[in-house]
């Protein structure tokens, strides 16, 4: 069984969700060249505005009309986004841009044995989108689409106006007095083919499922990308914060469903003159929560000045990684210390720059002086547990009086190759030793210098 979801006002209704002030006003989307209405909201519908109406005629019906340019690229992006959400409940999805998509319920029969189960799950998935839609359910994709577009419950009642055929064929059907699909199917196919041509024969074969549809099946994207048009031009962070918050909430939903987080955000600001300003927000520890990401964007954008007004804002997150599960306390929930550390790293990196915030990591070098290296902030650091090493190494080893120490464990000999100029040919014996004041240190005897040195402390 195939389901077709028709979304005749998807782009405009998503604009209303992101801009609630638009809901109480008559609003339409129109094409740039034909100046023709292609989508409208309920307020505009009550004023008598319909799809296909000229924009000038729509103005005569209401003085408060809010017209916005229809963007096919955004319509396709919204369908892709919706399909990504539906993919968690339906394994086989095929997009039918610009106004709908197909769902194949057969692969999910074990999970949803009855059609009503699939319809209930579909309603749950579409509810957060707050968009109007019509459904069609049939054994073939084309028939399901025709049911959804016509609003009919039974296939014989579908008007021939919804047949995907040439205008010439529809004129022939009307001249013959054929008004519905049921009346057309009542005619023997051979007779209909002789009178109306091969186009009708192929169309009936598609409706009956005798000729397969060439559907392109959907695969969820590997990263997040969204673009949001603004209702009014913006030139400051205050004007951009609300639409950006909406985009970040969409990103949080995207990442939450995949148990992922992002290491970088790319903000794109589309200006009136056609130019695009881009702003990167790096996250040392990664993040996925909208509120935390909004604070980081604010830190980055407060010092940004736009040379031209912003018409659209885009958000892209490509550097995605699996989210590490936080250790939880049974009563208190996630560790606040872990959250604070992640937020601190992100804020430090934004304030000081990515080149100023690092972590420390062990390196495969013999001498402790060379065994440390810088690592990107927030990166998972390697750990060496084979040999006990002190957590506190001195910046430079210092000479000591061995008479104040008691050797407790060792020796461990380190010898470096001759080609290392600084340490070439040096040999050291390392010991764990107890100082007379009770502290546990790490000493070495340098055979070249003939002296004892302190390298670090165990406590």
Low-confidence sequence ranges:
none
N- to C-terminal separation?
Answer: 70 Å
The main β sheet shows up as: 5 strands, antiparallel
Instruction: Choose one word for the global shape.
Output: elongated
- Mean residue pLDDT: 85
Q: If you compute it from the alpha carbons, what radius of gyration comes out, rounded to the nearest whole angstrom?
A: 34 Å
Quaternary assembly? single chain
Helix content: 25-40%
Sheet-strand content, in percent, reads: 25-35%
Structure summary, number of beta strands:
21
- Number of domains as seen in the coordinates: 3
Question: Helical element count?
Answer: 13
Structural class: alpha+beta
Précis, in short:
This protein has 459 residues and is an alpha+beta fold. The chain has helices at 10-18, 42-46, 55-61, 72-86, 115-126, 141-150, 167-175, 181-185, 189-196, 198-208, 237-258, 290-301, 336-352, and strands spanning 2-6, 27-30, 37-40, 66-69, 92-96, 100-104, 134-138, 224-234, 260-271, 276-287, 310-317, 320-322, 328-329, 333-334, 358-362, 372-376, 392-399, 405-415, 427-435, 440-446, 451-457. It has 3 domains: 2-208, no CATH class; 224-322, Dna Ligase, domain 1 (2-Layer Sandwich), CATH 3.30.1490.100; 392-457.
